Automatic annotation (TrEMBL):
Keywords: Aminotransferase, Pyridoxal phosphate, Transferase. Residues 1-23 are annotated as: Disordered. Gene3D superfamilies: Aspartate Aminotransferase, domain 1, Type I PLP-dependent aspartate aminotransferase-like (Major domain). SUPFAM superfamilies: PLP-dependent transferases (SSF53383). The keyword ATP-binding does not apply. Belongs to the class-I pyridoxal-phosphate-dependent aminotransferase family. This is Putative transcriptional regulator, GntR family. It comes from the Bacteria.
């Protein structure tokens, strides 16, 4: 008997797994080359399992929103429609709402940035800004210099545009100027043009460190000398636990820095509003790129954020977040000291993350399935390196679970580490 051809996505009698579905993909030969580098981030892949209630997730970077004044925000949301519905529900400017752009100036003033509303492009989260900047600057094979480790979501964008990422060492004070100099000199000698330097100078994701005040002008001087644009990604800068924000790189240099900001961590990610501040000519290209991608950012979201900023105590909310995250950081650090004395970690003074070096010989990626079985999740260090190295580290987030859950999560993790040694 001859086999009948099967409909896509099935094998005889049994539904196929998605892997088998991929094998049967009739469009396999049709995809653009850039899709070859696209893959699910290690965090996305973990998301479903880490969200199960029995798992303590030290994996995601989700802000803890329970402290938001939801009655007040529901009033804000209903006013958006009742009072400005026809604008909120309509298409808007590709560059973003002008009132919101003016208010963003007040937010950035906290980090010493002076700008004009025209310098700002509102985006769908800073993730879209990362995509726009990369789209505007990167041809396949172009070099992006980035910290080692770097934010996994930025690496995903660079991969999607087929950039070649060259990592530069960071230490407890952020990007190491001497290492940057050596890397840029080496690339120049090899005739390779660096399109930009991607950096998260404050409360780094995943490393938790900040670029010291002393190093900020030095990094900019080196970038300038090699003609390299700086992409400053700063979603966490206002979330310091024990100090006021440090001046942004953009506050030192308006011509050589593109600054990215976001309301995701200082307010909430659900409205998906972020922004880019760029030198004039770059800004025009970013607006064109954004218009071709999304026409315009959501008016409803922008007006909601704008109303929040003008009618609510947003500075007080940031202060509340800082205190809450400090308490969680303290719980995480105390638990690490108690349960994982053979590992090493930094004590972040802001943001969401601790970067943990495992005891020698252990590999965070290999260990992850056993951690999930033990009902604790983290992100393997391999997610944060372009070449998949970094398995000797893991990123632990303290932003979302309560202090009690953090302690329980680290206790479970210690059990997994002990078990690993016995394997
Ligand atoms: N940059 C960094 C360093 C981040 O950690 C994140 C979110 N985790 C983003 C950008 C993207 O944030 P959003 O799109 O929500 O503004």
């Amino acid at each position: 008997m001859t086999e009948q051809p099967l409909p896509h996505g099935t094998t005889s009698g049994t539904p196929t797994s998605s892997a088998a579905g991929t094998r049967l993909d009739p469009w396999l030969g049709a995809y653009a080359d850039r899709t070859h580098g696209m893959r699910s981030s290690e965090i996305r892949a973990l998301f479903a399992v880490a969200s199960r209630p029995e798992v303590v997730s030290l994996a995601g970077g989700m802000p803890f929103l329970d402290g938001l004044p939801l009655e007040v925000l529901s009033d804000v949301a209903s006013r958006v429609v009742a009072q400005r519905g026809l604008q909120a529900l309509q298409y808007g400017s590709g560059q973003g709402d002008e009132t919101l752009r003016e208010q963003i100036l007040d937010v950035m003033a906290l980090e010493g940035i002076t700008a004009h509303p025209d310098d700002i492009v509102v985006t769908t989260g800073s993730q879209q800004a990362l995509d726009l900047v990369t789209r505007v600057f990167i041809n396949p094979g172009d070099v992006v210099v980035a910290e080692a480790p770097s934010y996994v979501g930025a690496l995903g964008v660079f991969r999607a545009y087929q950039a070649d990422v060259v990592h530069v060492e960071i230490d407890a004070h952020g990007l190491v100027p001497e290492a940057l100099e050596t890397t840029l000199a080496g690339l120049a000698a090899a005739g390779r043009r660096v399109k930009f330097l991607y950096t998260v100078p404050n409360f780094h994701n995943p490393a938790g460190v900040s670029l010291s005040l002393e190093r900020r002008p030095r990094i900019l001087e080196i970038a300038q000398r090699y003609g390299v644009l700086v992409l400053e990604d700063n979603p966490y800068g206002l979330l310091g636990f024990d100090r006021e924000p440090w001046p942004a790189l953009r506050s030192y240099d308006e011509d050589g820095v593109i600054y990215l900001g976001s309301f995701s961590k200082t307010f909430a990610p659900g409205y998906r509003v972020g922004w880019a501040v760029a030198p004039h000519a770059v800004r025009e290209k970013l607006v064109l790129a954004s218009e071709s991608a999304i026409l315009c950012p959501s008016n409803a979201s922008q007006i909601a954020i704008s109303t929040y900023l003008s009618t609510c105590d947003w500075r007080g909310q940031i202060k509340a977040y800082r205190e809450m995250y400090r308490e969680r950081r303290d719980a995480m650090i105390a638990a690490l000291g108690e349960h994982l004395p053979d590992a090493t970690w930094n004590v972040p003074d802001g943001g969401f993350y601790t970067w943990v070096r495992l005891p020698d010989g252990l590999d965070a990626r290999d260990m992850l399935p056993r951690a999930i079985t033990a009902r604790v999740a983290y992100v393997s260090g391999t997610a944060f390196y372009y070449d998949g190295s970094g398995g000797d580290h893991m990123r632990l987030s303290f932003c979302y679970p309560t202090p009690e859950r953090i302690r329980e999560g680290v206790r479970r993790l210690a059990g997994v580490v002990d078990g690993e040694r016995e394997l």
